[in-house]
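I would love for you to help me understand the pair of lines that follows before we discuss the fold together.
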Amino acid sequence: MKPASVRVVVSGSAWMGGSLGSVESALYRMFEQANDEVIFVVYSISGASEMLFKQLVAMLQRGIRIRMIINRFADQHISVQRQLRQSWVFTGAYVGSKGNHLESTKEVNPGVFGPAGNLQQRRRFPDFGSIGITSAEGNMTYHAMQLTANRRLAGGVTVLANYTWSKNIDNASGNGAGDQSPRDGSNFSAEKALSSNHIPHRFVGSFIWEAPSFHRTSPWARQVLGGWEINGICTIEAGTYFNVVSGRDNSGTGINLDRPDLVGNPYLPSGRSKADRIAKWFDPAAFRQNAPGTFGNIGRNLLQGPAKASVDLGVVKSFFVRERHRVQFRAEAFNAFNRVNLDNPNANIAAPAVGRITGDSPPRVFQLALRYQF
């Protein structure tokens, strides 16, 4: 019989997906009779066929069936605000969030290290290929101190500045996509670490300055010199954390997300030149390949990447044409000072360019616009 591909998504008694008619019907009946238990299962099974349906049922009955629990979030917030003089308002706040039973993907048909044979022969269920499911094993916590200063419009100037000091921990960033999936789907607790979204320090400041209107000058001078608005945004933030991987399937699972063993200090001196930091952001010699049959002794997102800073500036001016008709001119510069914001380095210790930074954020961009309002 020609191999086919089956995708199973079950929510309660609802059914979607599948390419084998009789398999669909049998699975539907099986899940419909699951003691009214709400089930959410996602399978991507390659090489399945009707001949293998009995093995599929046995596999589900042996504990791979997932009971999806509704995501739960708890948020906390407390703030203190103080006004100074007439225009300045200062705010200090604590913000916290906790999430449980979050969606994350994992492999439930990995290879088993030890037995002879290729990866397919060593899988828990060798009649099937890779099986990725969505489970509710994701968890996260977020705590932050937020300080805000706000200067309300006075004298043609308004200012807003915000600083955040935070910590974000999870066990599967981005629903477990990419290198954030668990190395071992049966051990989510080993994935608890700083989130790939964790930015411990972040400052954002903005201003708007409305230039004088020159209302005591001639109409021509007022039209040309008056009514300009200058604005800007400055963003400074610490680098994000990234995963160091082995680049080899030493564990024999076929997941290819092994992490190496840490045998030294991966941090290099901070006073090095920019060229040196680009060439070697961390010390690859601090890592070695994990031993066969192991997943490595380091946690997820061990190292921090380069910090980023950017200033965006804009100039806006509206020219009066006649009643209810105006032309607005806008000039904007993104990353106005053309600062090079480096990407995270290559963190695959099996790669020739391990430790090297090979990318950066977009350079300065100018944008001019005219808008006719009527």
User: Anything to note?
Assistant: Residues 21-32 form the longest helix (12 residues). Residues 1-24, 30-52, 62-68 have pLDDT under 50 and may be disordered.
